[in-house]
Amino acid sequence: MTARTQLLDRAVAQAMSAVSAAAKRGLGDPALAELVAIRASQLNHCAFCLDMHLEIARKHGVREQQLDLLAAWEEAGDDLFDERERTALALTEAVTVLTDGFVPDDVYERAAKHFGERELAHLIGLIVAINNWNRVMVSRRVPPGGYTP
């Protein structure tokens, strides 16, 4: 597969990168940030972002078994994903899919119990940022393999 276009306005790319970086810094947990990015990218079928964030996750020490079973995190059990990770993944799915047009109250309230107000704001910012990147890459059909750290 070849990309429809490689063109992405530099100012747009810089702004999107700045949002992503700020959200990750504010969350303060690089491994969790990568799990969130990977899960959203799975849901959005973004091969480029999956390829990139899987590589970054490994560098941050995310276990291979977590990466292998991330698509089935709800069934994987509490031993593989702790409650904080499970909460972040549930929020990621709710924000990414928005099947009912909103994030369900119980998902948000659960997240608010596990993340402080600032952390939660950064987590939501991170989820929104990766969804933006997914849509930019998928709409242009950018194939995996072009990521360089």
From TrEMBL:
Domain of life (superkingdom): Bacteria
Xref: PANTHER family: 4-CARBOXYMUCONOLACTONE DECARBOXYLASE FAMILY PROTEIN (AFU_ORTHOLOGUE AFUA_6G11590), CYTOPLASMIC PROTEIN
Entries under Gene3D superfamilies matching the protein: AhpD-like (1.20.1290.10)
InterPro entries: AhpD-like, AhpD_core, CMD-like
Residue ranges annotated for the Carboxymuconolactone decarboxylase-like domain, each copy included: 12-93
One Pfam family recorded for the sequence: CMD
Protein's name according to its UniProt entry: Carboxymuconolactone decarboxylase family protein
